[in-house]
Design goal:
Layout lengths: L2 H15 L1 H7 L5 H23 L8 H24 L5 H8 L2 H11 L7 H19 L11 H25 L5 H22 L16 H25 L5 H8 L2 H13 L5 H17 L12
Pfam families: EamA
GO cellular component, one term: membrane
Protein name: EamA domain-containing protein
Length: 303
């Protein structure tokens, strides 16, 4: 695999792994407000860059624009479904179920993209999902269930389905649309959708203050880092790689996030890593190694 792609994937994993740390530091923000800030800040930065670079979107085909709008809905509802699931089920259940997206990406790739699932990819999907499940089981309180835990579990699975749609659309559109134009459109669409949903739901983002005021300086700093590092750098790294790698392989690689998050949590918050979590991490690592043999889509990188 090309060194540039490997580097991009490593940067992407590190960047999204930091998202859990940044979110934890935004202690006085609601989950939905964090999601809104994350996408709004990201899209505003991209719009500013596009303005100064005089980026034009007129070359984007109508069918690709429609797909990107759909992808924006998928990303927005992935975030909403997953965030809402945390209110009804345990963190362990939610994480384990929402990270089943490699299964759905693999299935969708067969039926939508007419791709053949190679044996190595299938093994990678099984090992990565099992590894993610073991990591989630290692959290303290993993067995705790709320009265509405079934609803929470279903929402987490729905979040995985939406995430899979988002990845699959990226794989299709990135064949014709450059990285910057793609993320400019899809992040902006997602931010608008989340903002509208938040307003319609009358969510009290700021405890009686105006929409973008009322939180601590620390929260503003870390939600900005969440937007720049985890969204613009992390998500964009994977969107970039979708032009060159199969979507099911990218979905497997993304499951490196809980590994990175656990490592950062250990050093920053002294959270212990259990033997069962280490086993899960090892399975995900093996899954990436095995599936990488059949992960490429094209031979040359020209983006």
């Amino acid at each position: 695999m090309n060194f540039r792609i490997i580097f991009v994937l490593i940067v992407g994993i590190i960047s999204i792994s930091l998202s859990a740390i940044f979110i934890r530091m935004c202690s006085d923000m609601t989950s939905l407000s964090i999601a809104v800030f994350r996408l709004v800040i990201s899209s505003l930065i991209l719009i500013s860059i596009a303005f100064f670079r005089k980026v034009k979107l007129d070359k984007i085909q109508k069918k690709d624009l429609v797909l990107m709008i759909l992808g924006g809905f998928f990303l927005a509802f992935h975030l909403l479904a997953w965030i809402t699931s945390l209110k009804y089920t345990s963190v362990a259940n939610s994480v384990a179920l929402v990270t089943t997206n490699p299964i759905f990406v693999g299935v969708f790739s067969v039926f939508v993209l007419k791709n053949k699932l190679e044996r190595e990819i299938v093994i990678g999907i099984v090992l990565s999902v099992l590894g993610s499940f073991l990591i989630s089981r290692g959290y303290v309180g993993a067995s705790i269930e709320t009265p509405n835990h079934i609803l929470g579990d279903l929402l987490a699975i729905l979040g995985a389905v939406f995430a899979s749609g988002y990845i699959l659309i990226g794989s299709i559109v990135r064949e014709r649309v450059e990285t910057f134009e793609y993320i400019l459109v899809i992040y902006t669409i997602t931010s608008v959708i989340l903002l509208i949903i938040g307003l319609i739901a009358s969510v009290t983002f700021f405890k009686g203050h105006s929409l973008f005021l009322g939180f601590s300086l620390k929260s503003y700093i870390f939600v900005f880092l969440l937007a720049v590092v985890s969204q613009l750098l992390g998500h964009t790294s994977f969107n970039y790689s979708l032009k060159f790698l199969k979507p099911d392989f990218v979905a497997i690689v993304i499951l490196g996030e809980p590994i990175g998050a656990s490592i950062f949590a250990y050093f920053l918050f002294r959270e212990r890593v259990s033997l069962i979590q280490l086993t899960g991490m090892a399975l995900i690592f093996i899954a990436v190694i095995i599936s990488s043999r059949k992960g490429k889509r094209i031979e040359e990188i020209v983006d």
